[in-house]
Amino acid sequence: MKILGFLIPLAAIFFFSCQPSNQTESAESTSTLDVIDEAVKMIPIQTPSGEFQVYTQRVGDNPSIKILLLHGGPGMTHQQYANFKDYLPQEGIEFIWYDQLGSAHSDQPSDSTLWTIERFVSEVEQVRIALGLNKDNFYLYGQSWGGMLGIEYALAHQENLKGLIISNMMASLDDYEKYAKEVLGPQMPTEVFEELMEIEKNNDFENPRYMELLGEHHYPYHVLRKPADEWPAEINKMMGEVNPEVYVYMQGYSEFGITPGASLAGWDRKSDLQKITVPTLVIAGTHDTMDPAHLEWMSEQLPNGQFLLCPNGSHLSQYDDPEHFFPGLISFLKEVDEMKN
């Protein structure tokens, strides 16, 4: 799966059948996860193209642990964290669902100049300020593309962070592509992988065989390890809300790397990990689209890094290995909280 979205790959599943929603939905109707008693806040974001609104929704209340969740894609939605509500509030942990600009309940301008890493980092910083998050309470969690954005934010503004969680995201897109093509692809039947590579070679991504083959031989093994008809409703809903304009511009079409010409091509922060000194948890799934050995290596490069392996997990380990994912995440949050207080 594409490393980016963190769900990156998931977006592609429905890319040709889904259209982005036209505009920000009202705050009254944005509680798509049926948590209607928590605070929804539309935050104004200043950009080179003017002011836009992004959606946030707070769940829980903890003065010292507030987690801002960065979804994958780019162009996916906060629905990827729907089941956090089933585990974190019971532990007294506050988290904030957040749709990045271009996604779901946030504004969706048609302006490719906005889809840059630097602008998204600026957006996260503006959201932080608007929500009153600071080094005494601010944990940033990013999965897939969200993990990439989390790394970039930490390199620019780590003085504002109490802790960082990088989930299911490698530190190099070239290394991701190598893993996808040299390790994951060959795990498929030979004829299947060869057909997929031929489609990519011909740039024939509208060929229905591409998604058909991935849906049978890739997604249920490395994105979410459940049969397609057992995928959670929230994940299916997220897929239906993907904004392909953002996703394709930044990530491209391929599930085995970044399409040439996509704006994220060549991204690599391996040599910069040592600069991130805040407590950082790196989460991997044994069956992930991201190389778990690479993610463990990342945790070792971070001066205050920890590693959590979800042995039954894939790219969405919170759904297919919650037994390891949530206890590990909760333990890290509480450990840092006790250390800092």
UniProtKB/TrEMBL annotation:
Keywords: Hydrolase. PROSITE patterns: PROKAR_LIPOPROTEIN. It holds the Pfam family Abhydrolase_1. It comes from the Bacteria. GO terms for biological process: proteolysis. The active site is at S144, D288, H315. InterPro entries: AB_hydrolase_1, AB_hydrolase_fold, AB_hydrolase_sf, Peptidase_S33, Pro_imino_pep. Residues 67-322 form the AB hydrolase-1 domain. GO terms for molecular function: peptidase activity. The keyword Cell cycle does not apply. The keyword Transferase does not apply. PANTHER family: HYDROLASE, PUTATIVE (AFU_ORTHOLOGUE AFUA_2G14860)-RELATED, MONOACYLGLYCEROL LIPASE. Belongs to the peptidase S33 family. This is Proline iminopeptidase. The lineage of its organism: Bacteria, Pseudomonadati, Bacteroidota, Cytophagia, Cytophagales.
